[in-house]
Amino acid sequence: MEHHDAAFWDAEYASGALGERAFDWLFDFAELGEARWRALLGPAGGRVAVVGCGHASLSAAVAALGYDTVSMDSSATVIAAMRAAHPALAWEACLDAVLCYADASAADACVASYARALRPGGRLVVFACAREHGGADNDGYGGGAPRALALVETRFRDVAVEELAASRSIAPTYDDVRPTHYAQIVARAPADPTEAPPPPPAAPPPREPHIDDYDAYYSGALTDGPPDPHDAFCSWAALAPKFAAAVAPLCARPRVLEVGHGLSDVGAGLAAVADYCGVDAVPACVDLQRSRFPDLRLAVADARELGAADGFLARAWGEPHADVIFDKGTFDALFLYADPDRAVRAYLRGARRLLAARRGVLVVVGCARTDGILQGTGAPRLRGFLDAGGWRVDAQEEILSDVGAGERTFDWIVAAPPPD
To answer: Whole-angstrom Cα distance, residue 278 to residue 127?
Structure first.
């Protein structure tokens, strides 16, 4: 069963993973405010269809403003539950999610159905995440807004887009997924129903993650304060035994460079068993991590330009050479860049140079075999780059996350660079 198809959502709600708690994806009614909703939906009394309604708190709030509201969801389980919770609302048994369906044509069919359902001059309102991650293979944390916009523009001429800052994770069940922005897309159906659809739009230029956005996120400028420390994917407790086995052939206390340390506790765990240095591309993140762990050696450096860390590593170790490069999620981030092939190859070249002199290894925890947000992004694609580049993969196994939501799995990969 593919993630994000109708059967997946029904199973999630039926299992209780989603059904036991009521929440709104991305943000709730109050977070955007009544004035914005009224501006988006037009005069009270109009008909509003809420598609992919989930727990329907948004539907109830819209109905309370005086709109004739119909709520729809592909999950019969959640519809049955919400009929009982909101008996006054009308029901029938979402674009971001549809983008991840196994059938790629489903998203286009979805937008086409919206165009048919709207009265002349009616509005389609889409909230999609995330503007700064344009990966084509993912909904939510990558690919939502760029792909949604492209689809909407094939059916509508009058389209407006606005960025909205995110203030929390996308949902309680995916608390480690915290985009910095969403896109609000508003499209008007033509007043003349005989008007021809617009010509296919030119492909938009790909969007890279913006370091300034990440810096604003880590500094707290986008929310009420800096984000809480958190482990993405797996905790150090889950990874420590595997790490010990992977580095045992190298030396008693290996030199370890963590690339993309974030606000995880993994760096402190690595420092307890290794000669540790850490880098991250985001200055505000490095500052926060230094305040948490003042004894850790940390510096600002981009994974694509590891040569910028040479001076930092030489001061720490006497030479810019490592026994281990440790990566938990950084490759996944690079796969969301405008030119992922170039970004990943640059990272691997830098890693090879740092590891070659001491015959070190690259250790990666990557998304994801069965993760619902970054479906199939990291590990399978990374293995292709490693094989093509002549890296020797000594270990690859699926591991179960011990943080975040549900039974999410990731790949543990240990690889040695090709000989010079």
So the answer is: 36
208 Cβ contact list (under 8 Å, min separation 6)? 132, 134, 337, 338
Q: What is the mean pLDDT of each run of 10 residues along the chain (420 residues)?
A: 58 63 64 83 83 76 86 76 73 48 65 80 76 38 62 83 70 61 78 67 54 75 80 88 94 95 95 97 93 96 91 94 94 79 92 91 75 50 88 89 70 89
Q: From CA 24, how far away is CA 170, in angstroms rounded?
A: 8
Q: What is the CA radius of gyration of the chain?
A: 23
Between CA 107 and CA 97 the distance in angstroms is 9
Q: What is the pLDDT of residue 104?
A: 54
Rounded distance between C-alpha atoms, residue 385 and residue 342, angstroms: 11
Distance CA 88, CA 101 (A): 32
DSSP output for 126-148:
EEES-TT---TT-STTTTHHHHH
How many whole angstroms separate alpha carbon 416 and alpha carbon 247? 11
d(CA 129, CA 26): 8
Q: Kindly tell me the burial class for residue 192, based on how many C-beta atoms sit within 10 Å of its own C-beta (0-12, 13-18, 19 or more).
A: exposed
Which DSSP string corresponds to 62-92? HHHTT-EEEEE-S-HHHHHHHHHH-TTSEEE
- Side chain identity, residue 272: A
* Size of the chain in residues: 420
DSSP, collapsed to helix, strand or coil, labels residue 296 as coil
Instruction: Note whether 100 and 4 are within 8 A (CB).
Output: yes
| Best CA proximity match to 88, nearest among 109, 67, 113 | 67
